[in-house]
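Hello, quick one for you while I still have it in my head. My current little project is about how a certain protein chain folds up. You're getting the sequence in one-letter code plus the fold written as tokens. Would you mind checking whether the tokens look sensible for this chain? Here's the protein in full, and shout if anything looks odd to you:
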Amino acid sequence: MMMRAFLAAAVVLLLPASGLATGTVRIQQSNSSVQTYSGVVMKLDQKNHALMLTSADKVSTVAITGGHCTPEGKLVRCTGGGFSLRQEGKTYSIPFKSATFYFNLSEQEQASPLAAVRPHSVVFDIVTRKGTHISGNGKLDEEGQP
């Protein structure tokens, strides 16, 4: 199943309108410098079939697209793809060397090779072609949804 099919299904199953998640993203550059961002807003974008990550200060937005997804028990595992970074009015395309996302669509915590995945949450691990390591997690927020 393509990422767009999974994201559309997740939006239909979990978030009848656009749903939000907040979480943490850790970025380690190839020179070993590390930045950690909390309060990252995570949104499933049904129209563009993407997982959108927006910094808490709304300065940077990342759109993750193009992955391939398969169910693994109560988790959905997505791999591959790439992302585009929009920052200060410019958009940069950043290809992945590897990427794995685990979406837990169930009501109970599930184990994954990356970490425990809380109910209605995502955990991910990405390595870009330039060697940047990005990991993160976020919980879906269904509050305010019809």
Residues 1-19, 141-146 have pLDDT under 50 and may be disordered.
